[in-house]
Design brief:
Number of strands: 0
Distance between the termini: 70 Å
Order of helices and strands: HHHHHHHHHHH
Structural class: mainly alpha
CATH topology of one domain: Leucine-rich Repeat Variant
Strand content: under 5%
CATH class of one domain: Mainly Alpha
């Protein structure tokens, strides 16, 4: 829902308060939006297109715990197109993190995370997406993307995230890495004995 006229002024104010510097005010606004049910979620969706970065980020963060399938498409758009990297990063986390939600989102999370991991211009946003792939079910698209990142990425933090995510996504990669670690351990033990 993006039409400001469809929401009550009170819900719009609460959505705006999700971006407040005062965390207690933001927490109280979030609790009131939860009590409002679907109308509260619609207000947070409305807030994803707010002109203020802090409001968009606060609304995306609200959806980490309270997002529903109705939130997935707006979160996806924000994760891919918001001009502020901090908002994109929170949207990626909120879309990809299923542990905090009452019901997991059913959109193409892996597709979104792969797209962000391969194409976002901000390292922290990409790192969030790569890390999110670690907790998704095994998917060939994720495996291919993570291998591509490992082979081409220069940033050590992104390579480390990709390595850990690939160990969870690809049992063959995990077996290879574990075997190499065992061999290094045996070699190091032998060197200490000599």
């Amino acid at each position: 829902m993006s039409d400001k006229a469809d929401l009550s002024e009170e819900l719009q104010v609460l959505a705006e308060q999700l971006g407040a510097d005062d965390w207690q005010l933001a927490l109280k606004a979030g609790a009131t939006l939860v009590q409002a049910g679907q109308a509260g979620i619609d207000a947070a969706i409305w807030g994803l297109s707010h002109p203020k970065v802090s409001v968009r980020r606060g609304c995306a963060d609200f959806m980490d715990h309270h997002g529903t399938d109705r939130c997935f498409a707006p979160l996806q758009w924000v994760a891919l197109h918001d001009p502020a990297p901090s908002v994109r990063r929170v949207a990626v986390h909120s879309a990809g993190c299923q542990r905090c939600k009452q019901c997991p989102l059913t959109g193409d999370l892996v597709g979104l995370l792969v797209q962000v991991a391969l194409s976002d211009t901000n390292r922290r946003v990409r790192e969030q997406a790569i890390g999110g792939l670690r907790y998704q079910p095994q998917d060939q698209r994720a495996i291919e993307a993570l291998k591509k990142i490992l082979s081409a990425e220069a940033n050590p933090r992104l390579r480390r995230e990709a390595h850990h995510a690939l160990k969870r996504q690809d049992p063959n990669y995990r077996a290879l890495v574990d075997a190499q670690a065992r061999e290094r351990g045996i070699a190091a033990a032998s060197a200490r004995k000599e």
